[in-house]
Amino acid sequence: MKIKKGDKVQVITGAYKGTVAEVIKVFPKENKVIVEGVNMVKKHLKPTQQNPDGGIIEKEAPIHVSNVMAYDSKAKKASRIGFKFETDKKGNTEKVRVYKKTGATVK
Where is the KOW domain (predicted)? Predict the structure, then answer.
């Protein structure tokens, strides 16, 4: 999976289409991600000792990784991600993620 925690992504399908937000959590085995403020669901909580009133909270639910695309904030566009090997001055080779549209490295 090319999307990592902390990446800025744009939702490309569904009710939240066009939303740009940060990835909070990644589930690589299920190919799902949780994106901040996207796919909000209501969860009913039973009363507990920590929360004696219980109640209803809103939280983000996972969405499939195919429904989001990495967002390049400099180019202001969503882009696919590829990999490239970069060599530094000492000769060390490092594999980095790059945006396919612009060729810029992903921070």
Answer: 2-29
1 part of a folded domain: no
Structural domain contains residue 38: yes
pLDDT band at 107 (very low <50, low <70, confident <90, very high): confident
Looking at residue 52, what is its pLDDT? Answer: 94
Give the predicted TM-score (pTM) of the model. Answer: 0.84
Q: What is the C-alpha to C-alpha distance for residues 72 and 28, in angstroms, rounded to an integer?
A: 22
d(CA 80, CA 9): 10
DSSP state of 106: P
Q: Which domain holds residue 81?
A: 8-99
Report CA dihedral (32, 36, 38, 39) to the nearest 10 degrees. 60
Mean pLDDT of 60-72: 97
Residue 68: inside a domain, yes or no? yes
Main-chain phi, psi angles of 67, to 5 degrees: -90, 0
Residue 31 confidence (pLDDT): 97
How many domains are contained in the chain? 1
